[in-house]
Amino acid sequence: MDSIANEAQIVANQGNIKGMFNSIRQLMNNARPNTAPIRDKEGKTITSIEGQIQRWKEYFEEILNTSTSPIGKEETVKAPLTPPLELPISVRPPSKRETVDAIKTMKNGKAEGSDNIPAEVLRADPHATADILLPLFQDIWQKEKFPKEWKEGIIIKVPKKGDLSQCRNW
Questions:
Q1: Is residue 17 part of a domain?
Q2: Residue 121: phi, psi to the nearest 5?
Q3: Rounded Cα distance, 45 and 52, in Å
Q4: Residue 27: inside a domain
Q5: Closest Cα partner for 120 from 26, 11, 19, 17?
Q6: Is 9 contained in some domain?
């Protein structure tokens, strides 16, 4: 228990809020995360971390690099000759109220992005968070360009407790 508490203090001093919450949760539940081995394409169990990482890489490459489009590379799609329909969509910049509402709907316990800010921190004071984020959102709205960091993602294998069905199908 003392080592977990010391770890919580160290990660808190480093500014790793999520790590601190995880350590505290571990102290309260005294639970250890369990990881299950995954299977390769032939059904053999992969126990090494490197092998599992390689298998996940192969799996996501298969899923993400397949073309589901019925249109071939040489084929083109003709644009319709009718004018576009008017849709009842607001084209004004986001308001503070919308930003606060969006912050309030964020769920706790989800993985933070590359900024390492968990939802719990953003939800601690939605109005202050909105005051900070709103100028950024309005600038993005005006320039019509997202920051390139928002287009990046990190995929981490997190099997559900007791659910190995996704691993068995490989």
A1: yes
A2: -70, -45
A3: 9
A4: yes
A5: 17
A6: yes
In this model, does residue 10 exceed pLDDT 80? yes
Across the chain, what does the average pLDDT equal? Answer: 78
96-104 vs 126-143: helix crossing angle, rounded to 10: 120
Interatomic CA distance for residues 131 and 135, integer angstroms: 7
Residue 63 clears pLDDT 90, i.e. is over it: no
* Predicted confidence band of residue 104 (pLDDT cuts 50, 70, 90): very high
Tell me how long the chain is.
170
Structural tokens at position 112: 């933070």
Please state, in angstroms and as integers, the Cα–Cα distance from residue 34 to each residue in 55, 63, 101, 115, following that order: 19, 26, 35, 26
CA distances from 27 to 4, 20, 33, 64 (A): 7, 11, 13, 38
In the chain, where does DSSP find H-type helix?
2-13, 17-29, 49-64, 96-104, 119-124, 126-143, 165-168
Domain around 12: 1-33
53 within some domain: no
pLDDT of res. 131: 95
**Count of domains for the chain:** 1
Q: Two tokens at 109? A: 């316990």
* C-alpha–C-alpha distance, residues 143 and 97, integer Å: 21
Q: How many other C-beta atoms are found inside a 10 Å radius of the C-beta of residue 81?
A: 5
pTM: 0.42
